[in-house]
Amino acid sequence: MSSITATPTPPLTKILIPDLVSHCTLPIKCSRHWKQASAESKKWLFKGDNLSQKKRDAFHGLKAGYLTSMCYPDSGFPQLRVCCDFMNYLFHLDNLSDDMNDRGTLGTAVNVLDALYHPGTCRPVSRVGIMTRDYWRRLIVTGSPGAQQRFIETFDMFFQAVTQQAMDRADGVIPDLESYISMRRDTSGCKPCWALIEYANNLDLPWEVMDDPVIRGLGEAANDLVTWSNDIFSYNVEQSKGDTHNMIIVVQKQEGLDLQSAVDFVGDLCKQSIDRFLQLREELPSWGPELDRQVNVYVGGLANWISGSLKWSFESERYFGKSGLNVKKTRVVHLLPRRD
Fold first, then answer.
1. Pick from 133, 126, 317: which is nearest to 237 by CA?
2. Distance of CA 66 to CAs 1, 27, 108, 202, 308, Å?
3. How many other C-beta atoms are found inside a 10 Å radius of the C-beta of residue 259?
4. pLDDT digits (tens, 9 = 90+) for 67-84
5. CA torsion sign, 272 to 278 to 283 to 288?
6. How far is CA 155 from CA 228, 237, 275, in A?
7. Which of 16, 51, 86, 158 has its CA 20 to 30 A from that of 6?
């Protein structure tokens, strides 16, 4: 009797990403100040740095100012500048935390939070502390007390989550899906960006509004779309570096799916998060004419983040290099080789 040897399945060389752009019907707006704010913000970021030319070029290709201008399109120029500075700075922190162990992440958190809690008396010596104090002193001039408190609290949660992420990475831990979703809502950095919606639009929303289940649900739905779509778009680069903090990898492990099926699974979750946002928007309670006006502006800001982040992801060079518009059209991503 002859034996038949099974031919091993060759590894995938490409994936087909979901069409989230067509699924999102939310309008896209962009601030008329975006070029000026973006240019000034990059100068602010580069001032006194020791970034290599390669890293500077990467920041130009990032187009963080363009993203900010679509997420806060109706803000005045001073507020947009602060938001641009924070966004450039947040991506800078993200790049730092991707390469740091938990001790380095904690050190950064101490420098940042000291500048936020004590802007008048803090005397930072680290560059990240100096940058934090600089944008924060500008923000608190017009930011409402509630927006300031929500910004600080959620940024603190961001650092706690990226510290846990760094520990998991060092230990080779891949969390279960429920734990990952909870942690990812904080490591995304979206929550302090939601507080910036209040700041950028001069809103003064009380806690009774911000703690409402529908408002919280809208914030989570927007966070989930931005974050989970980011996991799809960044998967190629992350898998080439062996990074496991990605929903696709978590789903593969938990659900026993092949790579393309896991991409489709996460894509369906992204589409459901857009649908969830639209449904919850129809269920907003009323708090009276003035608060309702402010709530509509805030929820519109969350919507801007959904539509703006999807557009930016293909126009930035962060995920697809200079091939973003072609990937947007074909949805085909050719996988990079693993870097050992």
1. 317
2. 67, 16, 26, 21, 9
3. 17
4. 999 999 999 999 999 999
5. positive
6. 19, 26, 27
7. 16
The answer to whether residues 194 and 188 touch, using CB atoms and an 8 Å cutoff, is no
Beta carbons within 8 Å of 38's beta carbon, 6+ residues apart:
63, 64, 65, 66, 68, 69, 84
CA geometry: angle 177, 222, 292, nearest 5 deg:
140
Return d(Cα 146, Cα 143) in angstroms, integer. 8
Binned at pLDDT 50, 70 and 90, residue 9 comes out as low
Q: What is the DSSP string of 41-77?
A: HHHHHHTT----HHHHHHHHHH-HHHHHHHHSTTS-H
Cα angle 185-280-276, degrees, rounded to a multiple of 5: 60
What pLDDT is attached to residue 44?
Answer: 93
Alpha helices in the chain (DSSP H): 20-23, 34-46, 53-62, 64-71, 77-98, 102-117, 127-139, 145-171, 177-187, 190-200, 207-210, 213-240, 247-255, 259-281, 289-315, 324-330
Amino acid at 332: V
Q: Which of 19, 14, 20 shows the shortest CA–CA distance to 224?
A: 20
Structure tokens at 153: 């609290």
3-class DSSP assignment, residue 81: helix
Q: Are 17 and 327 in contact (CB under 8 A)?
A: yes
Nearest-5° Cα angle at 227, 329 to 91: 95
**For range 205-220, the mean pLDDT:** 98
Run of H or E residues at 16: strand 14-16
